[in-house]
Write a structure and sequence with these properties.
- With 418 residues, this protein is of the alpha/beta class.
- It has two domains: 32-138 and 276-351, FAD/NAD(P)-binding domain (3-Layer(bba) Sandwich), CATH 3.50.50; 142-273, FAD/NAD(P)-binding domain.
- It has helices at residues 4-18, 24-30, 42-54, 75-79, 93-97, 158-168, 190-204, 224-232, 279-283, 326-344, 399-417; strands at 34-38, 59-63, 68-70, 89-91, 102-104, 108-112, 117-120, 125-127, 130-133, 137-139, 175-180, 210-215, 239-242, 247-251, 256-259, 262-265, 268-271, 275-277, 298-299, 304-305, 311-313, 354-362, 368-378, 383-386, 392-393.
- It has a five-stranded parallel beta sheet, covered by helices on one side. The protein has a four-stranded parallel beta sheet with strand order 13-12-11-17, covered by helices on one side.
- Helix 7 links the parallel strand 11 (175-180) and strand 12 (210-215).
- The longest helix has 19 residues, at 326-344.
- It binds flavin-adenine dinucleotide (FAD).
């Protein structure tokens, strides 16, 4: 399509060439456009794959320090011992071998947005035409909480196994305390799913004491009917759900969690801190000047930052109000990939993008629930809004949903990483 924008760009390049300088578009035509992606989670991996798959003329470099991605999705089943780490470990090999993505095994530490260069921990300087930031989340400090001792396991990996160790060490009849941060946070139903699986695990090992769930929110944030029902029936003897409960500090030397309701003694604990955009998003000034902003403001047509041009933010770090899920990160990555390809072709982004989110939650060791929603761009407000009648959830947990969960997850893993 020869769009109005593209015509304007070509006219501009012609005028500049006549004046004797090298026009941007002419340079782009001789040298392949360069997209640099920071972070190889569901957002970054999908973006890298789809840009290359849809337009192999674009160079894509993915900067990610870890040799493989460990998925948070299904990670609560590693905590219970139902799955091993290999089931949630996703390799980057196919992105390189099948799609020609250049992988840089390093951590990005700086962005020069004027000269469009990313610097890495090992001292590389990587130039870009378009930069995509997909670094996931960062956490607020909770006074006294040492996550090396009490892992939050809200980023999967070694902390997932450390949390399993916490659970395994709870003595018979002991008390396990877990906390849920204020929304928005990564995976709205995830903490309630974890509470159910902690209780299920203790019950099955005949070690059930109490699981005290301290929720900073005033009610269950996602699938309230499903989780309240589970708390009141299946787990009535184990789970004590306390809304409006905020952890003020942790004194693990004395196995005590301090809250707005007073101290609680615990034998095991999982404190999930309040969350915000990944460190590099904050360091690059992408939150703007309002100190209350926790997620990067972007234009949802392209996920380009509204603060710094040519930097796009996708996945959990972005602040469009859409749920922070791996499924959504994958969906946003495709919208962004399409917008980048159109940009290099001198075209405007799709004016009516749609995205979707899905979360499956194991409720017991044999049943699961699910939640899904579709979002569409609302031109009147410039926001992504839920499409009417698309918000749906499982009427009740079931064994069929538990089986479907693995099919859904494996599809998402394959679509993002292979
Ligand atoms: C228990 C649990 C259950 C969940 N269940 C579901 C579910 O059922 N469905 C669903 O859709 N989602 C689920 N999620 C949410 C999902 O895991 C996240 O929303 C998703 O991982 C977000 O993807 P992301 O790419 O934005 O971030 P991440 O997956 O965190 O990836 C970020 C990547 O960036 C890298 N990175 C960070 N900083 C840098 C840097 N400076 N330089 C280079 N690389 C960097 C990191 O190493 C990491 O690989 C669940 C989450 C949890 C915790």
């Amino acid at each position: 399509m020869f769009s109005h924008n593209r015509r304007k760009l070509l006219q501009a390049s012609g005028a500049l060439a006549a004046a004797g300088s090298v026009p941007l578009l002419a340079r782009a035509q001789v040298a392949a456009p360069r997209v640099v992606v920071i972070g190889g989670g569901f957002a970054g991996a999908t973006l890298a794959k789809y840009v290359r798959m849809w337009n192999p003329k674009i160079q894509v470099t993915l900067i990610e320090p870890n040799p493989s991605h460990v998925s948070c999705i299904l990670s609560n089943l590693v905590m219970t011992g139902a799955l091993g780490m290999n089931a949630i470990t996703l390799r980057y090999d196919t992105l390189r071998s099948k799609y020609g993505v250049s992988l840089v095994a390093d951590r990005a530490v700086g962005i020069d947005a004027v000269n469009r260069i990313v610097t890495t921990q090992n001292g590389s300087r990587i130039p870009y035409d378009k930069l995509v930031l997909a670094p996931g989340i960062d956490f607020d400090a909770v006074p006294g909480l040492d996550t090396a001792v009490l892992p939050h396991a809200w980023q999967a990996g070694p902390q997932t196994l450390a949390l399993k160790g916490q659970l395994d060490a709870v003595p018979a009849g002991g008390t396990f305390v877990m906390s849920i941060p204020p929304a928005p946070y990564r995976c709205p139903p995830g903490p309630y799913e974890r509470a159910c699986l902690l209780a299920d695990s203790l019950l099955r090992r005949r070690r059930a004491g109490r699981v005290i769930v301290l929720d900073a929110n005033n009610d269950v944030v996602a699938e309230p009917h499903t989780f309240h029902t589970a708390f009141r029936t299946t787990y009535a003897s184990v789970i004590e759900y306390r809304p409006n409960s905020v952890v003020s500090s942790v004194d693990w030397a004395n196995k005590t969690i301090h809250t707005n309701w007073g101290p609680i003694r615990a034998d095991g604990a999982n404190i999930i801190p309040p969350q915000k955009a990944g460190k590099l998003v904050v360091a690059a000034g992408l939150l703007g000047t309002n100190p209350a902003t926790r997620w990067a403001p972007v234009n949802p047509l392209s996920y380009e930052s509204t603060v710094v041009p040519h930097i796009h933010v996708i996945g959990d770090s972005q602040g469009t109000g859409q749920p922070k899920s791996g499924h959504m990160a994958n969906s946003q990555a495709k919208v962004c990939a399409d917008a980048l390809i159109r940009y290099f072709a001198g075209e405007a982004p799709d004016p009516a993008p749609m995205t979707s989110s899905a979360c499956y939650s194991p409720i017991t060791s044999k049943t699961a629930s699910w939640l899904t929603v579709v979002f569409g761009y609302d031109a009147a407000t410039g926001l992504m809004k839920p499409v009417p009648n698309t918000l749906a959830e499982a009427p009740a947990p079931s064994g069929d949903h538990y089986e479907d969960m693995f099919g859904w997850a494996n599809n998402l893993f394959a679509d993002s990483f292979s």
